[in-house]
């Protein structure tokens, strides 16, 4: 009995420590992407190299573990879903996200994805994939939380883009005439659009996985299709494929891509294991930590700051996120009358 308790404690420590570590990796990845673009690399080039590395790393595992789950024939519906997921999740989302990072900061880029749970809820509700009982407390809390997420994101975007005429770099309300940085506002719009595309893509992925229960294979296939689509888009827009830059050699870019693909794959795998052990709600609750880490790293490495108004927007968005996650988690424990059941022996603890 004592050994069993100790094993559970060690597992909890490993899960919590690992989830915090994953957020460090995600924050570091945002800084890396911002650094690569500051050297002049095109977002298309970064997408092609990083996504191709994801395909190369995931394919052997997908073939080994999920080959038996592959469909025996390809239907037009399935091919259409693959193309839409590839274009939305790889080309469009990453292009918007990278342009947003370039115009704002890594801290803003890691904060915006916290909108995703609320937007996914709205899209799933609109498509009738999510049931909401307006007479139930948890349904009302999810709606309120979603609104708080959106208002918080808008507040954060406007306040972070507000600068004083002297461009003071201190964390305090500006005392001079306040103007809005047009580039930062456009960057925030890019990030919001990216999160909207990501949220729609998640709903489409969930629908596709119902018929094709092989997540690694789906990720590998859509990565390859996404690379092809991104290369085609770059050819149309730039009339050439830019696979390097004078300040970054192709060799270094391949090394960055393989490192990012390997570490990213490990993070996704760990999140999947933690989700299976403790449920999706606990995993989702660690997302805002990545934003805090990114703010600290941006301050230390890049000398960036963030205004008090922007911090207030972040707090409002995080509060709304936790409202949505709390209500979603509580709904699982509700009976038909909306009454909460305290225990569920078949559901992992802390989920």
TrEMBL record:
Domain EamA: 186-325
Membrane-spanning intervals of the chain: 12-38, 44-66, 78-101, 107-129, 141-163, 183-204, 216-233, 253-274, 281-300, 306-325
Subcellular location: Membrane
GO cellular component: membrane
Entry membrane topology: Multi-pass membrane protein
Main location: membrane
This protein's UniProt keywords: Membrane, Transmembrane, Transmembrane helix
Matching InterPro entries: EamA_dom, EmrE-like, WAT1-related
Keyword presence, Repeat: no
Record carries keyword Membrane: yes
GO molecular function ontology, one term from the record: transmembrane transporter activity
Superkingdom of source: Eukaryota
UniProt similarity note: Belongs to the drug/metabolite transporter (DMT) superfamily. Plant drug/metabolite exporter (P-DME) (TC 2.A.7.4) family.
Protein name as catalogued: WAT1-related protein
Name of encoding gene: LOC18606251
